[in-house]
Automatic annotation (TrEMBL):
One matching Pfam family: SulA
Protein name: SulA-like leucine-rich domain-containing protein
Lineage: Bacteria, Pseudomonadati, Pseudomonadota, Gammaproteobacteria, Pseudomonadales
Organism: Pseudomonas quebecensis
Gene3D superfamilies xrefs: P-loop containing nucleotide triphosphate hydrolases (3.40.50.300)
Domain of life: Bacteria
Length: 157
């Protein structure tokens, strides 16, 4: 028994077919084109689970924000009771760059957050507003843009 090998047309894989057509001019234009990406004024993080677990997940984010090169504050508005000065110290946050603010009198946490954002003395204002309506979210976005700041809302579930 003799095996005869007949040549067949080879079919390029999708990857090989893609690579057969050089994209250098397209990639070059893309890389050289200036990226005019404006950072988002508002971000939201939703955490669910035990309070201690949520704080452990939040610690590296807040630590990173507390070490920003921006000379302005990291401001925390009405954080949960478990987020204490001792917790900030244990989590390794730069406490010299953090403001902890609580609303006073009839002022709401939403109003205080908007005011802190508008003033522009903070690079990031972290709030714990839940629920947050679309209108409230838009107020935070507008205030952040006025103050050239970032608004980060944490939703604990």
């Amino acid at each position: 028994m003799q095996l005869v090998h007949t040549p067949q047309h080879t079919q390029l894989s999708l990857f090989e077919a893609f690579m057969a057509h050089p994209l250098a001019p397209i990639l070059k234009e893309t890389v050289e084109a200036p990226w005019n990406v404006e950072p988002e004024a508002f971000s939201e993080l939703s955490l669910r689970g035990a309070a201690e677990s949520c704080l452990n997940l939040l610690a590296p984010i807040l630590r990173n924000l507390s070490e920003e090169q921006d000379a302005r504050w990291l401001t925390l508005i009405a954080p949960p009771a478990s987020l204490t000065q001792a917790w900030l110290r244990e989590a390794g946050l730069n406490r010299e760059r953090i403001l902890l603010l609580q609303p006073r009198g009839t002022q709401s946490a939403q109003q205080l957050t908007c005011e802190a954002l508008r003033l522009g003395r903070s690079h990031t204002v972290v709030s714990w507003l839940n629920p947050l309506s679309a209108a409230s979210r838009q107020q935070l976005v507008n205030a952040a843009r006025v103050g050239d700041a970032q608004s980060l809302n944490i939703r604990l579930g």
